[in-house]
User: Fold this.
Amino acid sequence: MKLLEERKKILEISQKLLDAGVIHNGQGNVSMYNRESGLVAITPSAVPYEDRELEDICVVDLDGNIVEGKWKSTSETSMHLIYYKKRPDVTSVIHTHAPKATVFGVIGFEPLPMVLTEAAVGIGGEVPIAPYARPGTQELAEVTCKAVGNGNAAIMAHHGLITIGSTIELAFIATVSIESTANTVLMARSMGMDPIVLPDDEVKILRGLLMGYKPRQA
Ligand SMILES: [Zn+2]
Assistant:
């Protein structure tokens, strides 16, 4: 079986996304790129999260052709592949319909501000809003990738959230810290207050802590 380790990781992170409440109704998709082989492990379309086994995860090439698997890959495959082609630092993409982050995608183009240390570490800068494009289209892949730019996330107008990372764990951390930030901003505004934004310099320092983190040698 090709990309066994990546398939395992995708199932593990999918469960964590479900547990975190950022996936509902079978929406969202997850992928990992194996740069050595040039192949991508990616979630299938039309198989419920709770029924997915290792063999249900698809393996595709960078053009989206199925290399191994019994299902069609997610209809948003091109929205994943675009990062693997354009960003040498990216090996994982997570797309969710995170409910609170998505609120910011229906009120205009105000980026999600950095108000929590958790988010400064996990994201490292405000999250832009990508303009609307129809789901499953190349246009959606392109407008979303443009909004992400050199960052690691964008909220997709009328749709959801995309995060990318050099590891799947970092993409996951970005997803949950964006959802947590959106929740905090919404709560502050429900009190009639605008949250106070962390200074840019402090956000940079906090992000540096995560990116410079090295696990202790065993
Ligand atoms: Zn979606």
